[in-house]
Design brief:
The chain has about 110 residues and is an all-alpha fold. About 50% of the residues lie in helices and about 0% in strands.
């Protein structure tokens, strides 16, 4: 089963078949598992950063607060390459922006 075939850069019926790009792509790569040994610690840390605040909020009978606290977990996802000081500053700016938005009445 073919998913797609890359068109040649020159296009048209007179195109050179040797320059047509890669051949047909089968369905097998869709089900292949790539090596992810270096990413699992990041995925585990992100899961903890998202899950722990919700569990604590649920245990304190305030799930909404736990869900709001998961916003801090996004710094683990999108700021993993930044130093911790920059992540903390970004979280404080995000908190201030959310407080300003929540004070507005729509």
């Amino acid at each position: 089963m073919l998913l797609w075939k890359h068109a040649s850069r020159t296009g048209g019926p007179g195109a050179d078949p040797a320059r047509a790009g890669p051949g047909p792509i089968g369905i097998r790569p869709l089900f292949a598992l790539r090596d992810a040994r270096r990413r699992w610690p990041f995925a585990a840390r992100a899961g903890l950063c998202m899950g722990v605040p919700v569990v604590i909020g649920w245990a304190a009978d305030d799930t909404a607060a736990g869900l709001m606290a998961t916003i801090g977990g996004f710094t683990a996802l999108y700021g993993s390459a930044l130093p911790y000081l920059y992540r903390a500053a970004g979280q404080l700016r995000l908190r201030d922006a959310l407080e300003a938005l929540s004070s507005l009445r729509f």
